[in-house]
Amino acid sequence: MAHTALARTIAGDVDPTTLGVVNAHDHLIRNGAGEVYIDPDHQLDDVDKAVEEAGRFVSASRRWAQAGTVVDMCPANCGRDLERLAEVGRRVPDLHIIASTGFHREKVYLETRSHWVSRYSVDQIANLLIADIREGIDRHDYSGPIVERTPYKAGVIKVATSYGVITDFERTCMRAAALASIETGAPINTHTTFGTCGLEQARELIGMGVPADQIAIGHIQRNADVYYLRQILDTGAWLEIDGTYRIKYQPDTNRIMELRELGELGYGKRILLGTDSGKRSYQKAYGSVTGVDFNPAVDGPRMLEEGFDPSYVQDLLVGNGQRFFTMRKDVRGDQS
Ligand SMILES: [Zn+2]
To answer: 301 C-alpha to center of ligand 1: Å?
Structure first.
C-alpha cells in the first residue's frame, strides 16, 4: 500500500523534507511540575521569550535549510502546556514544533507510589500515549482526572532512565512507550542520565518489539566513550547528541570528537543533534550566551572549519532528523 512519508508537528502532519534543520531534543515551553519543583530554573512559561529563542534558532537554520524544527521533549505530566507551545509555533515564521508524549525519569515525578503510572495497567498507560499521538495532547498534561484534548498531537515518544539503573516505574513507562510506538509508528527519543543505561534502553526497547531504527538514545554524549557508543549503534538504534556548551560537565571537544569518529566509522546517518537547553540559564532569551540555536549557529560552522565533510554536516543538521522523525505508519493511524 502506498505510504506517504509524514512527520507529525503540532500544526499538523507535514512532508519531513520541509522540517529544515532539526533540533532533536530541546525545550521551548515547560510550565510547572516536578523539574520546576526540583529547580525553578526549569520554568519556561514565557511565550515571548520562547518566541525570541526559537526565532534565533530559525535564523541560524537558514544557512543550512529553509526552516527549522524544534522537538520539544517535555513528556507527560512534566509541565506540557500545548496552548503556549502552539502560540510560539504560530508566531515564529518557518518554525515547526514536534511535541512529545511518554515519560521522564522517575525522580522528576517526585513521590511515585501514588502516581497513576504506578496504578494503571501498562495497556491503560499505552492508550493514554496513543491518544496524545492520534487525538491530541491533554490540555491538562495528564495532571488530573479530567482529560480535554487539544488539537495538538504528539509526534514523538520519550523514554527515560535513572543514573545507572532502570527503576520499576521507568520500566513500566518503557513498556507503555513501546506499545504506543508499535501501534502508532511514532519514534522513541530517550533521556539517559549522564549517558548511562543507553545500551540497556536500546536492547530492552528492541526486545519489546520496537524497530531499532525508530529508537534514538539521548543525551548520550555525556558518556564520551566511542566504544560504548558503537555498541549502541550496533543494535541498529540511533544516537542523539546534545548538551551543547555544558562546560560544567565536559568541553564541546568531546561532542565534536564523538561526531568525527562515529562519522569516520560509518555511523553518520544515525546521529541526531539537539542542545537540550531546558533551563532559563541555558537560553539567550533569558540572558545566557548559549541557547537553542547552538547546532546551526556554532556546531555546524565549527565542524566545517575542523574539516568535516560538508555532506556529513548537512546530514547531522538536516537530513538525519528528517528521516528519524518520520512516522512509520500512515498517520491516519492504523493502516500502513
Ligand atoms: Zn531535555
So the answer is: 24
Contact indicator for 258, 221 with CB cutoff of 8 Å: yes
The per-residue pLDDT for range 68-84, each reduced to its tens digit, is 999 999 999 999 999 99
Compute, in angstroms, the gap from residue 62 CA to the centroid of ligand 1: 24
Q: Which domains does the chain have, with CATH numbers?
A: 7-334 (3.20.20.140)
Determine contact, residues 142/120, Cβ cutoff 8 Å.
Answer: no
In this structure, how many other beta carbons lie within 10 angstroms of the beta carbon of residue 252? 17
Mean local confidence (pLDDT), 106-131: 97
Residues near 119 by beta carbon (within 8 Å), at least 6 away in sequence:
none
Alpha-carbon Rg for the chain, nearest whole angstrom, is 18
How far apart are the CA of 114 and the centre of ligand 1, in A? Answer: 24
- What pLDDT was estimated at residue 33? 97
CA of 1 to the centre of ligand 1 (A): 36
The string of pLDDT tens digits covering residues 297-329 is: 999 999 999 999 999 999 999 999 999 999 997
